[in-house]
Design goal:
Neutral Protease, domain 2; 8-stranded mixed sheet; Peptidase_M1; metal-binding; 5-stranded mixed sheet; 31 strands; 901 residues; binds tryptophan; EC 3.4.11.2; Immunoglobulin-like; 41% helix; disordered N terminus; binds zinc ion; aminopeptidase
């Protein structure tokens, strides 16, 4: 294709219903790696609700057209072209059979039908089905599918597709077949097949209504010992969706399949979820606590899609957040409930740790997206390549938007809205507006203003002014909302004030919450947290009978995805960190304190000034460290400094080197000043005995390993190196082993390498040579390590690119080395000499020819280039221009052209 000079823009406003509908699809596959023949028989009719079209235009890509028959007769009016098939003069209602050929072995894009480790897999979302057969490949065309798979029995003993197995048997010449039927209508993006040498962990469970279901986790034979946690996560997900939302599994069989070549995390194909191995395989020796938690979250996420996404799907891809925002919200709530106690999830402090982690991701990644050239609303208005819109905004901000309904209406009101949504729309392809209307109608509310959360891009800012009138005992809180200096891409979309649920509490001198009574109310309410409905550009809320001047606790539990501006003093933040009854805001106070200090220090570092740490900041951190009333998991989160990427983004001019220097300075000061405490914590929070994957045990390990990492910064780290080496050697789990290795690598950076680090690195490789997910960690740990002048990390990375285990075609491996360096090691990547950018450009260009989706993700790591210091900015511009002049895919072009525009 040569016509990519100006990529076509797809607009939401241009939506039109399809001219034809497809009611049933019968697919037959003769699976051969280089030449798979697909026969597709469809029942097609004209759509009574669409304007009459002259032709039936089906989408198709990378297909070899073989033949068409219409109602059993050869059909001559079918014309294949590069993007599909045009059929002229078709009747009102007919059966169409199309035969085509594709080449799965040559498919490195991992979209459509492809081969991985000798097995067949599919990935159809968003527009991969058209790479398998000609079709109306859009989510508002829903059909029921029967699928027949035929393949060599020896090479592909397992044949899977969506739904229920109807029949299987042998064929001549060592071949066999299986026939599957999915009784539910679905859009083509939910189609899946898998064929190969796989084995399953199986379990039978009864759902709420007493029906028995077969659950399977399919993997390659050597991975069977790593499937238990995924299966448990699936069972927990099934129970949770019944209890929290009254939603039951609707198929007799539910399958998860793991594949090591995969573009994203996992895919919710009906009854046949396909997962990146990273989100399935775990045992204590190979997976960290974070891996275990991620698996639980992703298994939940894909399972929850069965209702939010599959039973009710999206009308068009602009509505993507309808399923993704809602399903992320559901998986976040699931994980929080699991952390907070299996039965009722009522341990609020434990639930809060999950909330903190989610907000940290949102602020670091989504806020950055909103500040750059890719800024878009939760429901975008246009796109060039839909794969570029599986974003932090659609997923994470989308989840925050859903969470705000629950904050406004409570869990019960939210549940009523969900019930009405399913009652109205089960089996349909609908819009974000349909979801909002269901929530509004079920709760008797007009949510017209709330629509702006879907249509306005950019991160809202809420500035807060407070006034205490001692004589009248009145406390007024004035909120003002706006967007500040938004990126141009965001500014265009901003029309007016949002409905912001703003949760607030007032704290007295003793650190306890004060009763809350607004001036319009007869008495104080029971709760000491109030959700203010903030709807105007500026609005004042007045509390009465406030007996002492309070300290406000603002935006409790992060009740809306906004930036709060309020001029707290350092003492006030330290007080909140010590006393706020809202655990999220306790953490938040510490982050504000640290961020402010770090930004001041980064500014000084940038101008070469001397650095000093405010004693009160160190004291506040010391109190958290030794506060036994706080859970270890919470302490770990509170003591972890904001990331370098987040801090750099907060600077007027991003300066990664200065941020790194400031952050290292603070870490060093805290390490040396609190050395004895860190050592004590390190000893106290060991988890001897067999590994337990519980949140409590994970909390101990996290705090212990944080202590070890601080101890790396001691002026004399010899003792730390001894501890880390011993921990490495004795570890019975990957959390402790990987943490120890990371500490050894960082401790050795200062000395230009150390024997202990090299020994552990070599041992790690040998020990886990046969575990690709662990070798990914081996690459990632080296790519994200601290560098030194003698040994910049780019040199290590370039050398690792030639390691026999490196493979650019495998996305996990590419991410482990290249993305880790370009996106997770800012101080090294943004080297003044531009070496990081040159490397980035080469890799984007190389990946573009293999896998445009993955290349486009990497391409995004320079999008904030305009915000950096002049030298870096110019280096990035040159790299972007190089990429723009050489890449071919629509995916990467959209990213780099928007960045340069
Ligand atoms: N729908 C999937 C999810 O969020 C993600 C997804 C979209 C995906 N497109 C993909 C996964 C392409 C793999 C490849 O659960
Ligand atoms: Zn999803």
């Amino acid at each position: 294709m040569a016509d990519t000079a100006t990529p076509n823009v797809i607009r939401r406003a241009d939506y039109a219903p399809p001219a034809f509908l497809i009611d049933t699809v019968a697919l037959e596959f003769d699976l051969l790696p280089e030449r798979t023949v697909v026969k597709n028989t469809m029942r097609v009719r004209r759509n009574p609700d669409a304007s009459r079209a002259a032709h039936l235009e089906l989408m198709g890509e990378q297909l070899e057209f073989v033949s068409a028959t219409l109602d059993g007769q050869p059909f001559a009016n079918a014309h294949a072209h590069e993007h599909g098939l045009v059929l002229d003069n078709v009747p009102e209602n007919f059966e169409l059979t199309l035969t085509s050929i594709c080449n799965p072995a040559a498919n490195t894009t991992l979209s459509g039908l492809y081969v991985s480790s000798g097995n067949f897999f599919t990935q159809c979302e968003a527009e991969g089905f058209r790479r398998i057969t000609y079709f109306l490949d859009r989510p508002d065309v829903m059909a029921t599918y029967t699928v027949t798979l035929r393949a060599s029995k020896a090479d592909y003993p397992v044949l899977l597709s969506n739904g229920n197995l109807l029949e299987e048997g042998d064929l001549p010449d060592g071949r066999h077949f299986a026939r599957w039927e999915d009784p539910f209508r679905k859009p083509s993006y939910l189609f899946a097949l898998v064929a190969g040498k796989l084995v399953a962990l199986e379990e039978r469970v009864k759902t709420g209504s007493g029906k028995e279901k077969l659950l399977q986790v399919w993997v390659e034979p050597h991975d069977l010992d790593k499937t238990r946690h995924a299966m448990d996560s699936l069972i927990h997900s099934i129970r949770w969706d019944e209890e929290r939302f009254g939603l039951e599994l609707d198929l007799d069989r539910f399958m998860i399949v793991a594949v090591s070549d995969f573009n994203m995390g996992a895919m919710e194909n009906k009854g046949l979820n396909i997962f990146n191995t990273k989100y399935v395989l775990a045992n204590p020796e190979t997976a960290t606590d974070t891996d275990f938690a991620n698996i639980e979250a992703v298994v939940g996420h894909e399972y929850f899609h069965n209702w939010t996404g599959n039973r009710v799907t999206c009308r068009d891809w602009f509505q993507l957040s309808l399923k993704e925002g809602l399903t992320v919200f559901r998986d976040q709530e699931f994980s929080a409930d699991m952390a907070g106690g299996e039965t009722d999830g009522s341990d609020e402090a434990a639930r809060a740790t999950k909330r903190i982690e989610d907000v940290r991701v949102l602020r670091q990644m989504q806020f950055a997206e909103d500040a750059g050239p890719m800024a878009h609303p939760v429901r975008p208005e246009s796109y060039v390549e839909i794969n570029n819109f599986y974003t932090m905004t659609v997923y994470e901000k989308g989840s925050e938007v859903v969470r705000m309904y629950q904050t406004l209406f409570g869990r019960e009101g939210f549940r009523k809205g969900m019930d009405l949504y399913f009652k109205r729309h089960d089996g349909q392809a609908v819009t974000c507006d349909d979801f909002r209307h269901a929530l509004a109608d079920a709760n008797g509310r007009d949510l017209a203003q709330f629509e702006r959360w879907y249509s306005q891009a950019g991160t809202p800012r809420v500035s807060v002014r407070t006034r205490y009138d001692a004589a009248q005992q009145r406390y007024s809180v004035t909120l003002a909302q706006g967007y500040g200096e938004a990126a141009p891409a965001a500014r265009e979309t901003q029309k007016g004030p949002l409905l912001i649920p703003f949760a607030i509490g007032l704290i007295g001198k003793d650190g306890k919450d004060l009763p809350l009574q607004l001036e319009s109310e007869a008495q104080a309410s029971d709760s000491t947290t109030r959700v203010l409905e903030f709807t105007q550009t500026e609005q004042t809320f007045t509390f009465v009978n406030v007996e002492q001047e309070p300290l406000p606790s603002l935006l409790r539990n992060f009740s809306a995805p906004v930036i709060v501006e309020y001029d707290y003093s350092a003492d006030q933040l330290a007080f909140l960190l010590a006393h706020d009854s809202d655990p999220f805001n306790r953490w938040e106070a510490g982050q504000r304190l640290a961020t402010r200090e770090l930004l001041t220090l980064a500014g000084r570092a940038a101008s070469g000034a001397e650095l000093q740490l405010d004693d009160s900041v160190a004291a506040a951190f010391a109190r958290v460290l030794t506060d036994e009333s706080l859970s270890p998991a919470f302490r770990e989160l509170a003591l972890m400094l904001p990331s370098e990427a987040y801090l750099a983004e907060q600077m007027a001019e991003s300066n990664p080197a200065a941020v790194h220097a400031a952050r290292q300075f603070v870490r060093k000061r805290l390490a040396n000043a609190l050395k004895d405490d860190w050592l004590k914590i390190y000893e106290q929070h060991r988890t001897p005995g067999p590994y337990e994957a519980t949140p409590a045990a994970a909390g101990h390990r996290a705090l212990k390993n944080l202590a070890l990492s601080y101890l790396t910064e001691l002026d004399d780290p010899a003792e730390t190196v001894r501890l880390a080496s011993a921990q490495y050697d004795a570890a019975n789990n990957m959390t402790d082993r990987a943490a120890a290795l990371s500490v050894l690598l960082n401790a050795s950076a200062a000395n230009g390498g150390s024997a202990e680090a090299q020994h552990a690195l070599d041992d790690f490789y040998r020990r886990f040579e046969k575990e690709p997910l662990v070798i990914d960690k081996w690459f990632a740990l080296q790519a994200t390590q601290r560098g030194s002048a003698q040994r910049p990390v780019i040199d290590v990375v370039r050398k690792l690119m030639t390691h026999p285990a490196f493979n650019l075609k495998n996305p996990n491996r590419a991410r482990s080395l290249i993305f880790s360096f370009c996106a997770a090691n800012p101080a090294q990547f943004h080297a003044e000499d531009g070496s990081g950018y040159a490397f980035w450009a080469d890799q984007v260009i190389a990946l573009d020819a293999i896998n445009p989706q993955v290349a486009a993700r990497l391409a995004r790591s320079l999008e904030l280039w305009r915000r950096f210091t002049p030298t870096l900015r110019e280096g990035m511009r040159a790299a972007l221009e190089k990429v723009a002049s050489q890449v071919k895919s629509r995916d990467v072009r959209e990213i780099v052209e928007k960045a340069l525009a």
